[in-house]
Each structure stands twice: as C-alpha cells, then as structure tokens.
Amino acid sequence: MSKLRAERLYKVFGRRPDEAVAKLEGGTDRENLRAEGTTAAVIDASFDVEAGQIFVVMGLSGSGKSTLLRMLNGLLEPTAGRVHFDGHDLTGLEPRDLRQVRSHKISMVFQHFALFPHRSVLENAAYGLEVQGVPRKERFQRATEALELVGLGGWESSWPDELSGGMQQRVGLARALATDADLLLMDESFSALDPLIRRDMQDQLLQLQKRLKKTIVFITHDLNEAMRLGDRIAVMRDGRIVQIGSAEDILVTPANDYVASFIQDVDRSRVLTAGAIMTDPAEALGTTTDDGTTLRTERDVLDAAPATVTEDTPIIELFTPCSRSGVAVAVTDDNGSLVGVVSRARLLAALGEPGTGPDGAKPTSPGEPDAPESGKKVIADA
C-alpha cells in the first residue's frame, strides 16, 4: 500500500468554489472560471507515493505545485478530493488530530530557510521537537545528531547570520530530520541557493536518502533538479498533472507537446539508462562479428559484447563500446544473466530529436486514439 495518496484533489479560490469544481468536472476551461472571478489552482490531481520514494512535482510558476503540497499536510483544505497518509484520511481529521499528524509525522523544509535569528543553530534544529513537547535534553541530543547528519557538527552554538545560504538550508533540513517524521515535504527548498551550493545540497539529500529512506515530496521548477532527484516525477501545467513517470519515462515517451518542449534541453545521455533503451537479447542473434562469427546463442552475445553493463548504467557510458564494435552492448541483471542488449542504432535513436522515443516515435497528445499507454504514468488533459 502507498505511503501517501492524493485522490482527485481540487483547490479553488474565489466565489462558490463547489460550483466551480462541478463546472471543471463538466469540462469548463480554467480561463473561463478566472473570468468569473474564480481561480482553479489545482484540478483533479491524483497520485501515489510509495514509502522511501522521492516524488518530485515539477512545473512553472503558477502551475499549482505549491498549492498541491500544502493540501498534502492540511495547511490548505481541498475544495474536493482526499489525501490519505499511512492509510488515514487526513481530510477527515479534526483540527487537533491534524495538528498532531503535522507535528509528529510530517515535516516541511521551506525555500527561505525559516530560521529564527534569535536562536542558535542547535535551538533552530530542535524547534520541531520543542513543538512536540520533547524534553530539552532529549531534543538537543536528537538535534545534534541531525546536524551531524547534514554536515554541521560543531556549528551548534553559531547564529543563523553566521552561516552561508547553503548551511542555513542544512539547518532547515536538520530540523525536519530531527523530528524523525515519516514524510518530508520540500517546497522549492534549494531554489534560493547558488548553482554550486544547490548541487551540493542535492548530493546531500541523495546521500541522506540512501541512509534514511524517507518518503519525500519535493517541489521544483527546475527540470534538471527533478530529473536528478526524483524516483518519480509529476509534471504540472495550469493546475493539472499532465504526466507522471520516472525521468526515463518522461524523456522517452513525453505525454504531449508541452512535456516534450519542457524536456528538449535535458542531457538525455546522463538521465537515460541502459535499461530504459535496451531491446530483447534476441535482437542480437544472427549478428556477425568482425572475425566472421555469427552469434547464435545468448552465451555468444555475452562473449562477443564490447561491454557488459547493468540496467542502471547511464547511456553516456555506452558511447565508447558502441563506437568500437558492431556488436551490441550486453545488459545483465544482478546475477549476471543477459536481460537485454543496446545496439549502436538503438543508442543513436535514444539520443535523437528531443520528444521522440528510442524507436523515433513522436509523442501523442492525451486523448488521441494512438496515445501510448503506460502503467508508470498518468495523463490528464493539459
């Protein structure tokens, strides 16, 4: 069962929001509602987040991603729809119970650090525990451990204005980790940082995630950040989720022209993996090697392959072996068994025009008869 589930969430600001939801469900355009003085910030958003997963919500300013995040922990009440967390319906909780969930089970990391200038680094990191009523000695011990995790050991007595922007954001992250919350909500948490510090914070988050395996919902407008961090990514436009999938899903089979244009400048060679573009091993059978040997069995393919890689190998590492041999690169599982091959032609196709799949197919817009189906993505009208 998923850790977090959003079911058909709507958030409408303005007059008669319930009527606006009914109109949206009936096909009324968002712009028509705006002309009536009503703003539909989130429209029919549904998704699941598994335990230990980083789920990234990506979109431009005004797409509704931050509003969506605030509905997940009850800071904003949905106009319609449900949020389920750990099997409990958060939208049905009494205010007191919801506050308990927010203080013990869900932590938030903000864009602008939100540190108290009159409190030390240690006191800031321990603030969430103070809200929970944890005794001073215990909360300082746990906050110290969290600061160690984010690389700020020894800075406990410093003041926020003595820290760089990246260090201040680490304090915010330590505060969230100190509560040992099951769910972390991160709203543009790294966007105020300089590029080098931002990448360092991304590295820090990925390292922590390997160790702590938290469930994280991460909001960003930066596509490269989304591709780097997200186990799964939801792309939002005008309040709607237009596609959900892994970075590879979105690069290889964008749901529509909007997503295809969004990803056109991504370095596909560093995001796509061998597993995403490999074909069946049978595709290599019948190939003739430079010495005239014909590959007739999977063992022949493994022996003749210019390189053997795993499914999660970035395709940038396949360039050299594919350029040196006409035989496909072998892709194996953890047991060393052949699970696929990547030929030179397949590799070049995957690096082709942005918005095409490895076979060169163009994306189709949602609703078209030949729109591709995938269990890993959800497509809604943009």
UniProtKB/TrEMBL annotation:
Highest taxon, organism lineage: Bacteria
The record's annotation in PROSITE patterns points to: ABC_TRANSPORTER_1, ABC_TRANSPORTER_2
Q: Which Gene3D superfamilies match?
A: P-loop containing nucleotide triphosphate hydrolases
The root-end lineage is:
Bacteria, Bacillati, Actinomycetota, Actinomycetes, Kitasatosporales
Span of domain ABC transporter:
4-263
Its name, as the record gives it, is Glycine betaine/L-proline ABC transporter ATP-binding protein
According to the record, the residues making up region (Disordered) are 351-382
Cite the record's Basic and acidic residues compositional bias ranges. 373-382
Keywords, sorted A to Z: Amino-acid transport, ATP-binding, Nucleotide-binding, Transport
Annotated PANTHER family: GLYCINE BETAINE/PROLINE BETAINE TRANSPORT SYSTEM ATP-BINDING PROTEIN PROV, GLYCINE BETAINE_PROLINE BETAINE TRANSPORT SYSTEM ATP-BINDING PROTEIN PROV
Question: What does the sequence similarity comment in the record state about its family?
Answer: Belongs to the ABC transporter superfamily.
Which molecular-function annotation in GO is an example for this chain? ATP binding
Q: Which SMART domains match?
A: AAA (SM00382)
The yes or no answer to whether the keyword Nucleotide-binding is present is: yes
